[in-house]
């Protein structure tokens, strides 16, 4: 509530005129700056002088000099205008509240899909943050059911056992390349004997002691020697540049990694497994905003995956 009724006459234009007059100390310059007539400036100044019971600006040959009263009220007038401008930012936050989407996913998702999701959110000026939890040996069922994790991304078909109360959708089909510095005569494809003979670097894109490649070898009565494991695909590539070894890597990740000269990119042995990347969520949360929005974004990306 205003302390004095006559202050009700002041509007935002009057405050703006006062601040511009303080800056230029010229009615003409102020009118040009605000794209209004000088008579409008005179009218606003008349109201301000009445409300504050002070001449505020003294005309002289050099322009309009502010009085002591003008200099005293300047910070308060500036604060009033800044506060009004701040109201628009508060309204933006009300209509665009911050959101956090929680995702459980392997490194495959982080390299190939996450950047595109963030690009879409940025283009939409979305006030959304993504929290990524590394996929474990098993899907985080309880967290999916209670909503601590909105969506999980896991490998299929059948590499992660699905609960009957989960819904899933395959979003990527992929095969493998063999990246190797373990030389062989055939430069296009590794045969099974050479594959098993080569030392291997094993990436652990999700926390598990088992993987689809060793399962495939075991079914054929074969095995390979794991030289070491590493927590990322790029770390594995860096290792095989230093020691002769082989890395089996999803084809669609190759463009996202730094593969130096001297590393051969070969087709794997015949019959090598392929896989899908599956999007997984709790059936009870199908209509939740986070799940619906994430699925919508993934559907936009499907033509590029």
Automatic annotation (TrEMBL):
The entry assigns this protein to a family as follows: Belongs to the LysR transcriptional regulatory family.
Start and end residues of each HTH lysR-type domain: 10-67
- Tell me the keywords, alphabetical order: DNA-binding, Transcription, Transcription regulation
A GO molecular function term, named singly, is: DNA-binding transcription factor activity
Give the protein name, as stated in the record. Answer: LysR family transcriptional regulator
The answer to whether the entry has keyword Transmembrane helix is no
Keyword Transcription regulation carried by entry: yes
Name the InterPro entries for this protein. LysR-type_TF (IPR050389), LysR_HTH_N (IPR000847), LysR_subst-bd (IPR005119), WH-like_DNA-bd_sf (IPR036388), WH_DNA-bd_sf (IPR036390), YidZ_PBP2 (IPR037402)
- One Pfam family of this chain: HTH_1
What's the source species for this entry?
A: Faucicola atlantae
């Amino acid at each position: 509530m205003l302390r004095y009724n006559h202050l009700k006459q002041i509007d935002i234009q009057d405050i703006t005129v006062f601040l511009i007059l303080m800056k230029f100390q010229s009615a003409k310059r102020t009118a040009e700056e605000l794209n209004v007539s000088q008579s409008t400036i005179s009218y606003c100044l008349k109201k301000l002088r009445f409300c504050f019971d002070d001449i505020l600006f003294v005309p002289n040959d050099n322009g309009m000099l502010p009085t002591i009263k003008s200099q005293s009220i300047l910070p308060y007038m500036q604060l009033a205008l800044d506060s009004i401008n701040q109201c628009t930012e508060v309204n933006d936050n009300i209509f665009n509240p911050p959101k956090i989407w929680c995702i459980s996913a392997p490194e495959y998702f982080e390299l190939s899909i996450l950047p595109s999701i963030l690009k879409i959110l940025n283009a939409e000026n979305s006030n959304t943050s993504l929290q990524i939890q590394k996929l474990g040996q098993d899907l985080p069922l309880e967290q999916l059911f209670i909503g601590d994790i909105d969506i999980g991304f896991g490998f299929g078909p059948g590499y992660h056992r699905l609960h009957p109360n989960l819904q899933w959708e395959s979003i990527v089909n992929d095969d493998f390349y063999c990246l190797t510095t373990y030389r062989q005569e055939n430069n296009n494809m590794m045969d099974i004997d050479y594959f098993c003979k080569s030392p291997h670097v094993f990436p652990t894109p999700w926390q598990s002691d088992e993987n689809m490649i060793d399962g495939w070898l075991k079914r054929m009565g074969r095995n390979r020697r794991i030289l070491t494991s590493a927590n990322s695909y790029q770390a594995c590539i860096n290792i095989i540049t230093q020691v002769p070894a082989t890395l089996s890597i999803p084809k669609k990740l190759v463009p996202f990694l730094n593969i130096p000269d001297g590393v051969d990119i070969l087709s794997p042995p015949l019959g090598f497994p392929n896989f899908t990347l599956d999007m997984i969520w709790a059936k009870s949360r199908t209509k939740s905003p986070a799940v619906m929005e994430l699925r919508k974004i993934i559907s936009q990306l499907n033509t590029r995956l």
